Amino acid sequence: MRIPAHSVCTAIRDDIVAGVYERGSRLTEELLARRYGVSRVPVREALRTLEAEGFVVTRRHAGACVAEPTEQEASDLLEMRMLLEPLGAARAAQRRTEAHLKVLRGLVRLGQERARRGNSDDLRSLGGWFHETLAQASGSPALTSTLAQLRHKIAWMYAVEAPAGPVESWAEHGGIVDAVARGDSERARTITALHTERATAAHRLRFPGQADRAERVRTSQHPVNITGLRH
């Protein structure tokens, strides 16, 4: 069975974000093909996509390598998200479907329940699903794709501290959904802007200020996981 290039791309991207491949390390087609059990063709296509997304760079005499973003580039990503998340919420207030609202309300109920119980283990995942669904509700594939890339890159470059007030955070999620349900674009934009600004304050660069790579944004190492390869 031929595994599509987008599934290989997802697997490589996930491993880059998880720190399996170090910043600046080479990504050879042969080794990647062997690692993921595919031919070199989908690997080559995946690397081109990842280069366009900014996870991979092509260097002379070295070929494809994991990118090494600067701290300024990492900071720019957070600023971009602070601009685009509120835009997505405002668009969602105009274009959401009943199916979107049903999913968003369900996620808010789960998040608020777990926040009240102090069960924070899966709050981050629920928050990610909430914002992904909110972006999809904007009715803009380009905006949804851009926000998804931002989330991947931010997860690669930043560690996120547990929110000091999870109950308040999920109350904000609920306020966003209420505004979206009413079709109140400005209210949705305002609450999302405040929520995103608060969430941004909890982000910390992974291993900043290393003596030998002071301008590099680095990440921790995690075990490889290719079980999430999607067909």
Main traits of this protein?
mainly alpha, Arc Repressor Mutant, subunit A, Four Helix Bundle (Hemerythrin (Met), subunit A), 2 domains, two-stranded antiparallel ribbon, two-stranded antiparallel sheet, 63% helix, 6% strand, elongated
Write a compact overview of the structure shown:
By secondary structure, the chain is mainly α. The protein contains nine helices and four strands.
Distinct helical segment count? 9
Q: Tell me the CATH topology of the largest domain.
A: Four Helix Bundle (Hemerythrin (Met), subunit A)
Question: What's the end-to-end separation, in Å?
Answer: 10 Å
Number of β-strand runs? 4
Helix content: 55-70%
* Rg, Å, rounded: 19 Å
Give me the strand/helix succession.
HHHEEHHHHEHHE
Structural domain count: 2
Uncertain ranges: 210-231
Query: Could you give the order of strands across the largest sheet?
Result: 1-2
Overall spatial form = elongated
- Write the CATH architecture name of the largest domain: Up-down Bundle
| CATH homologous superfamily classification of the largest domain | GntR ligand-binding domain-like
Q: Taking all residues together, what is the mean pLDDT?
A: 87
The largest β sheet comes out as: 2 strands, antiparallel
Strand content: 5-15%
The assigned structural class equals mainly alpha
CATH class of the largest domain: Mainly Alpha
